[in-house]
What we know:
The complex is a heterodimer of chains A (520) and B (163).
Chain A: H1 4-19, H2 29-47, E1 56-60, E2 75-76, E3 96-97, E4 103-104, E5 109-115, E6 123-129, E7 135-142, E8 151-155, E9 158-167, E10 170-176, E11 186-190, E12 196-202, E13 214-219, E14 224-228, E15 234-237, E16 239-242, E17 245-250, E18 254-261, E19 264-271, E20 281-288, E21 292-300, E22 304-311, E23 316-325, E24 332-340, E25 348-355, E26 358-362, E27 368-370, H3 374-378, E28 392-399, E29 406-413, E30 420-428, E31 434-440, E32 445-451, E33 455-462, E34 473-478, E35 485-490, E36 502-509, E37 514-518
Antiparallel strand pairs in A: 1-5, 2-7, 3-4, 5-6, 6-7, 8-9, 9-12, 10-13, 11-12, 13-14, 14-15, 16-17, 17-18, 18-19, 20-21, 21-24, 22-25, 23-24, 25-26, 27-28, 28-29, 29-30, 31-32, 32-35, 33-36, 34-35, 36-37
Chain B: H1 3-28, H2 31-47, H3 57-75, H4 96-106, H5 110-120, H6 126-133, H7 137-155
Helix pairs in contact in B: 1-2, 1-3, 1-5, 2-3, 4-7, 5-7, 6-7
Amino acid sequence: MSTESERAIATALREAADGAAPAYPALDSTAVITAGRALVRRRRMVRSGAVLAVAAVVLGGAGIVKGQHDRAADRLPADRKDIGVVSVTLGQAQPYTATDGTVIDGPSRVVVTVDTSAVDRPNVGFYALAGDGSRTLMANETVDLDRPGPLVLTDPDEPHLTFGVVPSTARALLVGGPDSSGDVPRDLRRIPGTQLEAFVSVTAIMTTEAVVSGLTWLDATGRVSTMSTGEDGVTELPTATVDGVTTYVDPNFGWGAFVATGAAVTALPEQLTPTDFTDPLRVAPTAQGSGTTWLVQALVDPAAESPSISFTSSCTQVGSTALARLSDGTRSVLQARCTTSQGADTIVASLAYTVDGTPRTMLPVAPYVVAVPAEGWLTVPAVGAEHPAEGLSVAQTVDPPTAPGQWVSFRRLLFDGQGLDTAASFPLAPGADATFQLGDGGGYDMAYGLTRSRPTAVTPVGSPASRFAAGTAWATVKVPGTDLWAVAISLTGTDDHSPHQLVSVEWTDASGQHHTTPAG
Amino acid sequence: MTASSDEDFVAFVRDASPHLLRTAWFVCGDPVQAEELVQAALEKVYLSWRRIDRGAATAYARKVVLNHHIDTRRRRSREVLTDRTPERPAAETRPEETDALVRALATLAPRERQVVVLRYYVDLSEAEVAATLGIGVGTVKSSASRGLARLREVLVPEGDHHA
């Protein structure tokens, strides 16, 4: 933290906090403990094992339980007759490897019980089922069977497991979290005699209640709902359903989709939706057989018409290109499928549609790599481990010709490979020979530019003049279908957030003419 | 929960809650909602108290507060802004500059606001902010940059911007 503006904000925040001191004494710890103890008591009611009864279901196989528990106090005899158990065993074909390297073997089972002996406080319990048939309580919680709300639970002794209940209308769900993924083993089962469905999901990362952001699920009517951890409220999300794919947009957490294949429904992972995005695109494999079927989706202008997608020669389109408006009317989903017989680096050649008769073209996959010397980055403070040792891929999106200039959006591949993030988006005005702007580069900053002729040398000029002393790197690519060259410049020394870091860019075109373009 | 464990927790609430309350207030913009957020977060901390590393308890509680903030925002169609009549008499004693700052923070996107508060009030490093919010360091950096730029626009009177 080194700039004047950063220090000013920090000081202002601390002064504001000090000014608020009379309004904020420490909370009453007695009230907190009283509320906490009430929850603990409810959990102990079931752990006693004295009053369990009624409906139960065994959730199997999601490859859930790793290792054995040694919590004798939580164990229940396997042959209790007062626990109605419906046993369902599902297998997990392959061991699942979490992102921390933990291998979770399958199949294994989780027993879910609903205790209605306390009529006003029915309790759902989740037990790990060991090989000898004994059960170990992982967690339980009180639910309202008449107005079933979603519930998500975790167990510190099963850190790769998330479980809970959703209303019985749910057909598929996604457990949200920082690394939520669509391909983890999970299961969703109706609990007989109730309006509940129990779910168990393996998570790619170690979970705690603070990590799991919530649940998103698709119901039988095509509605997508979401709830957040620790909250009872449910929010219905805007959706569009095309060819068995229900796409939803969560303004806070991203966009995702549920894909129906026969009777099965698969959740695709959520994808980040930057606040300033334009036409975010996803390409996801949805079926494996002799080849791979890819689902291609883009969120486009709600007034879009006449959609088309051109695939590369490695991918053959299956079916037609469809367009459906989200239920809230804010965007439309443009969608198509293609198949590849072998791996392909590039699937989509272009997307096109019209808005009020004006054609728009999106060229989402034309990546080039800005080779950044790792040596230079390692000298820059605050860059840390995210130096782009393997380069930065940038793709551009073109909407030609949109007045007053030709807009180009630079997309940066996210570090986790989950999609593209808009790094900068701006036009080159008619008559201008170049424009350059600072933009997001992930763990560092970049400058992005458009020129009308191919640059052969590019030098960013900073403020102060020594700002980029640790080195810069640049690359350029012709923007297809235009007379523009897109330029990306990796910068050093921009970790202090001060304004006006980039003064101008000096560059030379192919004819040898020198230019100095002030930064926008 | 043993008596000594409860004593530990009471001490933790006493020590940590003022700072958590201020963090929550900056993030949500409303003193009453801030108390609700922290109260709910501390209840969760209490449930997990026996297995929480005491040195990480504040960070854990802060993470729960921030998750609750996003949760609450999802449940409500829009955020509660600070131009409504304060329900707490003590809030009336806040200086005008303080309210201006909180109002300025409220103009940021929720994630930008969280990043700015964690980075410049809580004084976490970019990596620590990223870990707390479950986002990339790059997102922290860009969110902080955008947030600061927006705060400069809102807080600095027209004409005072320097070139």
